Amino acid sequence: MSAEADPIADELSELIFHVAGRLRGGFNAAAAELGLPPAQALVLANLSAPTPMRELAEWLSCEPSNVTGIVDGLERRGLVARRPDPADRRVKHVVLTEEGERGQAELRARGRAQAHALFGQVETEKEHLRDLLASVLAGSPDPCKSLRR
């Protein structure tokens, strides 16, 4: 069956986009409650190790100059700090501060609550859905680098 004539794949794609939209909307609302723009909240929620600014730009699919503004905002709030790379002092790594770790924990807790509310309706099928989505992801290349290491 060609990709053009697969109505089930089309419907799956549409449903996944809708679910992702709901998750994104809830995440953005949680970010707003914490006074963070979505891009800053995205970095804060996913930063788990010292990460070079250029890698953040690749992960966010934006220009390095945009990352500078995002990190500037997080740094002004005391949520992250820039640290020079020990091997190349020209490279700056973004690291969470203690306040950033607390903010990250709050964003993640709100995300878990939202996911529970969204996926609680399919409690008996949740593991199966997870396994199916993991299988889809495992079978296709990931064009994005992850901040999680």
UniProtKB/TrEMBL annotation:
Q: Name one Pfam family in it.
A: MarR
UniProt xrefs under SMART domains: HTH_MARR
Keyword field contains Transcription regulation: yes
| Domain (HTH marR-type) ranges | 9-138
Keywords, in A-Z order: DNA-binding, Transcription, Transcription regulation
Q: Which InterPro entries match?
A: HTH_MarR-typ (IPR000835), MarR/SlyA-like (IPR039422), Tscrpt_reg_MarR-type_CS (IPR023187), WH-like_DNA-bd_sf (IPR036388), WH_DNA-bd_sf (IPR036390)
Coiled-coil region: none
Instruction: Quote the PANTHER family the UniProt record gives.
Output: MARR FAMILY REGULATORY PROTEIN, TRANSCRIPTIONAL REGULATOR, MARR FAMILY
Q: What protein name does the entry list?
A: MarR family transcriptional regulator
What are the leading ranks of the lineage?
Bacteria, Bacillati, Actinomycetota, Actinomycetes, Streptosporangiales
